[in-house]
Design brief:
heterodimer; A: mainly alpha; Ferritin; B: alpha+beta; 3 helices; 26% strand; globular
């Protein structure tokens, strides 16, 4: 049995109305605009590419990342902050991996392969989520780079 | 000496019966402003619907508690109407933390409690229900040491071990535990913000600052991990113990949250899982 709360109905209704007013979701980002998903992708990709530059030693892989970073930084709408430093992110080599790679060519090969395959997965996910055309273009550029790089670095 | 208290309790019971306020069969009310949700690990995903929205597979690994449906694409609307694994079952909110590892083996927490508290502000009567759909991040996933961390690690049943911002070595037979307090002052306007932090603030000198004037329940997460002994090889998917952080996406049904704030926090009483006080 529910307890009777008639004296409180008016107060509850008022509270409900007030809370409904203040709990509307934030205004949506204009369709095809640079929204939260785009911003998150760009910041993540800058962090991943910058970290990967400490790992890769193939000149074409270095060149691709440097070109991507130029395009990614053009998309930023606020000063860049690395939100992912030190994290075990898909496609982002860790400091421990970079250290190990510097002493073992086999380790480097393995970590470069993991970087390429994992980042490709992230890029494919981003390709389905990002609607802002200039950001989508960078996703496509990076995806084509990683696909070609995988062929290049296959044993 | 107990007579006056007993008489008072009898009078209060009569008043409560008249007002249809639920009264526990035994014990006196505990003057602590608190209600609680005990949850379990629901699933593990490399997703983060707050920090990396819609980017499935792009995050460091997270352990998700509560709502079973949480993933990179979760929104207030996708979460509502789903089920979770918390007690009370009405709490279908999403909670998540970085995954813990010993070397490369995941370790799931076995005790997962979310306390909603009235402490931290001098006027608990002014606490408002947590806004529906509010997203809160606590802790610093980017911490580089103790100075920029608010993490707290200690040992369950081993109070002699000093708490630390990084993992601590717990004696055999005890468990590693971590506490995380979420900010409890809201700006009254935004359910999220670009940095996912600036719409919330911690109280200052017992009150919410004018920039964040709305006092909401203080969420305290307490996790217990089946870990003791050496801390060698222990890490979080975000790094050291100092990077412990927690995310909360509120989808408590509005009426359930409102009732608990009114019955437990505003009047400073400890409530059970159903939101009733003794």
């Amino acid at each position: 049995m529910r307890p009777r709360r008639q004296p409180r109905i008016a107060a509850l209704l008022l509270a409900g109305l007030l809370s409904a007013c203040q709990q509307e979701p934030p205004p949506p980002v204009p369709q095809n605009g640079y929204g939260a998903t785009e911003r998150a992708f760009v910041e993540l990709s800058i962090a991943t590419d910058e970290q990967a530059l400490k790992l890769v030693d193939d000149p074409s892989l270095i060149e691709n990342r440097e070109a991507e970073l130029v395009e990614l930084r053009k998309l930023l709408d606020a000063p860049y902050v690395n939100n992912h430093a030190g994290h075990d992110m898909p496609g982002m080599p860790t400091d421990a991996e970079i250290q190990l790679a510097s002493t073992s060519p086999d380790a480097r090969k393995q970590f470069v392969h993991a970087h390429l395959t994992e980042q490709l997965e992230v890029l494919r996910s981003a390709g389905t989520a990002i609607t802002h055309p200039p950001t989508a273009d960078v996703v496509k550029l990076m995806e084509s780079h990683r696909t070609a790089e995988l062929t290049l670095t296959e044993p | 000496m107990r007579k006056p208290a007993l008489q008072l309790a009898a009078v209060l019971s009569m008043i409560a019966a008249t007002l249809s306020i639920p009264v526990a069969a035994q014990g006196e009310p505990v003057r602590v402003a608190e209600f609680v949700a005990d949850c379990q690990l629901s699933h593990r995903l490399p997703d983060d619907p707050i920090v990396l929205p819609n980017l499935a597979g792009a995050s460091h690994s997270h352990d998700f508690f509560g709502n079973h449906s949480t993933n990179a694409r979760s929104t207030q609307h996708s979460l509502e109407g789903q089920t979770g694994n918390c007690n009370p079952a009405v709490d279908i909110s999403s909670y998540w933390v970085p995954t813990m590892y010993r070397n490369n083996t995941e370790i799931a927490p076995t005790g997962i409690t979310f306390y909603y508290l009235g402490e931290g502000v001098n006027n608990p009567a002014a606490i408002q229900p947590t806004p529906y759909g509010l997203k809160i991040v606590a802790g610093n996933a980017k911490a580089t040491g103790d100075a920029d961390s608010i993490a707290r690690w200690s040992c369950l049943h081993a109070g002699q071990v000093n708490p630390s911002k990084n993992f601590v070595e717990c004696p055999a037979g005890t468990m590693l535990e971590t506490y995380l307090d979420f900010p409890q002052c809201w700006n009254g306007r935004d359910l999220d913000s670009a940095d996912h932090k600036s719409h919330m603030s911690y109280p200052v000198a017992g009150g919410c600052p004018s920039s964040h004037p709305v006092s909401v329940p203080k969420l305290r997460m307490v996790l217990r991990y089946p870990v003791n002994g050496s801390t060698a090889g222990l890490r979080l998917s975000s790094g050291t113990g100092q990077t412990m952080h927690g995310d909360f996406f509120n989808v408590w049904p509005r009426a359930e949250m409102e009732r608990r704030v009114r019955n437990c926090l505003n009047v400073v009483l400890k409530c059970d899982h159903a939101g009733n006080h003794g």
